[in-house]
Amino acid sequence: MKNNSFSLIELSIYYIVVFFILREWLVPVMDLTKTGYMELILLFIALSLVISLFRLNFIVSSFVKIAYIVWFIVFVYGGVFVLSAEGIDFLFNDLQTNLSALMRADWMNITDSFRTFLFFILIWMLIYLIHHWIVVRMNVFYFLLLTVFFVGTLDTFTEYEGSFAIVRIMVLGLVMTVFLLIKRLFNQANIKLDIVKYLKLAVPVVVLVVAVSSIAYFLPKSPPQWPDPVPFIKSAAGQGGGEVNKGGVKKVGYGENDSELGGSFIADDTVVFLAEASTKQYWRVETKDVYTSKGWEDSGYSQGELKSFGPGETIQYSLPRGPEEDTKSASIQVMYPYDFIIQPYGLKSVDASYSENSNFEFVMAMDTEKIMPYTFQAPTTLQEYSVNYSKPVYLYSSLKNPTEEIDPKIAERYLQLPKTLPERVRDLAADIVGGRETPYDKARAIEMYFKQNGFRYDTDNVATPSEGQDYVDQFLFETKVGYCDNFSTSMVVLLRSAGIPARWVKGFAGGDVIDNDGSTSTYQITNNDAHSWVEAYIPSVGWINFEPTIGFNSSRSIDYDLQTDAYQEDVLVIEEETEPDEVVEEQPETQQTAAQGNSFSKNISHFFEQNKFILVILLLAIVVSLFVLYGVRRKWMPKVYGALYRRRGFDESTFESAFLQLLKLLELKGFKRKNGQTLQTFAKEMDAYFETSHMSKLTKCYEQTIYSDNASKVDITQMKESWEYLINRITS
């Protein structure tokens, strides 16, 4: 009784370690696919491990697992009680929809609930396989290797940071390997398992593994000796994205991490969205308020506050809007799976088609004013939606004659500057705005400064600040060469140095017209149009956008209600700084082929981005299936080899190889000849097992063929019958 209790405790320890390793699988999948309810999925893993631990009856365990899966799907996707009429109706309709899609091979219309069902089945299979590895094989090496490979791949090719996760996996995996190795040694020596002996062997090794791993993790490490190949791989695959390591050449595009700006980038014409609108304009995404001397971060001023609103509801945020009668609508078709909403200036509401049972809403992060679509309280992506807006028109009289003071809360947040900012930056700001009286005039002076003082727009050979160097100081006084991030960040810092609240804005420029339909044009926005600019706070007016980057003009609209010579049309015009495209009358066939190949790679890349969740599950299913096939290889490999051997035939010339093939099949079946055992002795064992004499006959003829001169006396017909009989018995 004591021994059985200890075996249960021992298996419990194994399963606890397995639970934490499986969690390392689940975290990146949930993170990358923006999937919620991680705790409930972990609960299913724990439930499956407990069922496996106590070895419940297959029917009982299957009923419990299926019941949990059904409850989860109805609770998450239906929002009703599973045993209610609504819950049963939801299950029936969902099953009918997915079976119909499967019959039509319409993979894109398979619902999220059915994908979740397949994901749970995959976890179920994986836990069954792990139980086999632990209890039967007593070896988790392949599982550990696969886990490290999976997390390492995601760490390399996605935004998931898996460095510490790999360390945790290695520690847990090595500890598990130690436990199972000791278990195997006890079994092979036929020694009764004793807890004291077990701990004497296991504890020192476990302590050593943890100590060595900790030292390795905290010790300083050399930088990479070779350049990162991932940017080049992504470039070849046509994937957009703007984030790379400091100092590296990156691919232009919208990125999330702006903590370290600088460095060159390469162009990328991957289309990210299409906009049907009446005018060309800037498309705003989010703002950031903390300048760190290297880049931008979010201060968390609103402590992560979120504001939700439904489709069509009026959005309340910091920007002004134009008159109600000037309200317009723009349709957005998303080509790249961004999880945020593209915002025109003067945004009023967002409309999107959605399922009534999807708990759909829009959520705005109050710190950055980034708007994201949510379903079931988790971020999602939209392929199409429309935005209603009324572009603000600023009165020139209000800009020139402010009558209000700056709100202290706005000043506190948007006048922030790092203490390490060089004093010459503040001095330059004072020189630029010298003699100007109003905040708007000061902001305009700073905006025009970059276009009148030898600055140059370029994306190549753009410097990155050294460790103790300020990003803005380097650009203003040393290089004067850069792109939108350099110009916009520098203007925000100069505005704040001059006492004008300002914030850094990210989004997209207007793109190119690809179609016209009366008063509406279709604009194509690519990764090349990813852009940053400035919003300054002007008393009596509010936030107003400024464009300091050379080659770009601001999209703000001003009503010049005062007599002034300063009138100008503030219309968005993007002047190309590059050389004009060559006009080619006839495109060579090789160029057409290259263009088609590039288009194909973009389509492939877009397909992978749109179906990321399905592909991750499919990859996991393939991996688990391969391991299941490997685990039961003794059942199917003899059949495969038997079919191949039968096709080769059996005659005098192939007798020797056919006999060796028979030995190979017996080994796959689990009958391996022992070291030093003669063929005749082995043949007798096989005959005893199969209750026949065919193996001895074949062995005698084989030895006669190899060692005797009377090989011609072998009855090939009889040997063929014996060989085929044994093949059939082995593969049956």
Mean pLDDT score? 80
Structural class based on helices, strands and sheet pairing = alpha+beta
The helix tally amounts to 22
Summed up, the domain count is 4
C-alpha geometry: elongated
Largest sheet: 6 strands, antiparallel
Low-confidence stretches: 1-6, 238-248, 567-600
Largest sheet strand order? 10-14-8-3-20-19
In percent, how helical is the residue content? 40-55%
Instruction: Work out the number of β strands.
Output: 23
Please report the distance between the alpha carbons of the first and last residues. 40 Å
Strand content: 5-15%
Instruction: Tell me the radius of gyration.
Output: 35 Å
Protein name: Transglutaminase-like domain-containing protein
Domain Transglutaminase-like: 476-550
InterPro entries: Bact_TGase-like (IPR052901), Papain-like_cys_pep_sf (IPR038765), Transglutaminase-like (IPR002931)
Transmembrane segments: 12-30, 36-54, 66-85, 117-135, 140-158, 164-186, 198-219, 613-632
Task: Write up what this structure looks like.
The protein has four domains: about 220 residues, no CATH class; about 140 residues, no CATH class; about 160 residues, C8orf32 fold (Roll), CATH 3.10.620; about 100 residues, no CATH class. It has 22 helices and 23 strands. Strand 11 and strand 12 form a beta hairpin. The chain is elongated and about 115 Å long. The N terminus is likely disordered.
Q: How would you sum up this structure in a few lines?
A:
With 732 residues, the protein is α+β, with helices and mostly antiparallel strands. The chain crosses the membrane at residues 12-30, 36-54, 66-85, 117-135, 140-158, 164-186, 198-219, 613-632.
